[in-house]
Amino acid sequence: MSTTHDHGHDGHEPGDGLGTDVVLREGEDAGRFPNPGMGPHRPRRSDVDPAANKRAERQVVALFTVSIVGAIGFIVAYFALPLDETPERLRISNLALGLGLALSLLGIGLAAVHWAKALMNDHEKAEDRHAQRSSDETRAQAVQVLKDGAQDSAIGRRGVLKGALVSSLALFPLTIALPLIGEVGEDWDVSKFKRTMWAKNKKLTIDPTGRPIKAADVTIGSVVHVIPEGLDETDAPLDEKAKAVVLLVRLDPRDIKSEQGEGWSYDGIVAFSKICTHVGCPVALYEQQTHHLLCPCHQSTFDVADSAKVVFGPAKRPLPQLPITVDDEGYLVAQSDFHEPIGPSFWERLR
Length: 351
Hints:
Elements: E1 2-5, E2 22-25, H1 45-48, H2 50-80, H3 87-118, H4 136-152, H5 159-181, E3 204-206, E4 223-228, H6 237-244, E5 246-250, E6 269-273, E7 285-287, E8 292-294, E9 301-303, E10 309-312, E11 324-326, E12 332-334
Antiparallel strand pairs: 1-2, 3-4, 4-5, 5-6, 7-8, 8-9, 9-10, 11-12
Helix pairs in contact: 2-3, 2-5, 3-5
């Protein structure tokens, strides 16, 4: 016996494919759909053709080999192309490291996917839901399923495939570990982060030309990327620039709500570190109407008119303010270095 519910009131005839016909067997719950069951299994080419199976195995091995080559390439590039102070060498080094890392990780990912799709068992299976804590018998069955899966993957009988898998997985972590460990003798002097090139009477110059800036040249609403005078003459200009780069903004003095120090601005011109206090990204997006600085990495937002305090996002501290004034010729100069370390938190930082 069966019951048919016709929903033909929408203008469609029952059974025409456009209405909704639900046929229930005797004893079935009208609020549930019947279980359609598993569809018929369709064997893959690699299941019925030994040559196709072997070809798929060679493809997986080739992908793992790509990962191995990428990892080795990363290691070679790390030692053969050390970071240099010139932008060109830095670009080449980053490109080589990025390609090696990408190939290493991509090879493992593609190999795993292709292995699963072409060589492992693809029969669909269904398991009933049960209590979160399985019984001891179920746990033993789970272990057996894992063993069966390993046996089904035939990894024990595929020596070349197993060697490629182990080699790629063994080499890939080195692409992450090497940059973290660093070269032998690397400088861990964190006190360098507590100071920059800025000093009393050090002129503010335009990045990257190094041209000094007069206060009269900065109009209300304008933003200027600033570096300290003489940056290119230092032993490590890129390292110094990474700490000392500043964003200069001119506001209407009446819009300034607060400063981090008395007299640290000049006629509405304020200068703040360009390094985000979250993870060190360059803060460079200025909203003229709201006086907000936005970090493009994680959307931390700072209010320039109110001591660069955080108004949104994950950053926890305001951007450090650089005390500025003008010299006798009208050029903008620093009154001193920043009064606190710039950038994100690090060990040994007091606040």
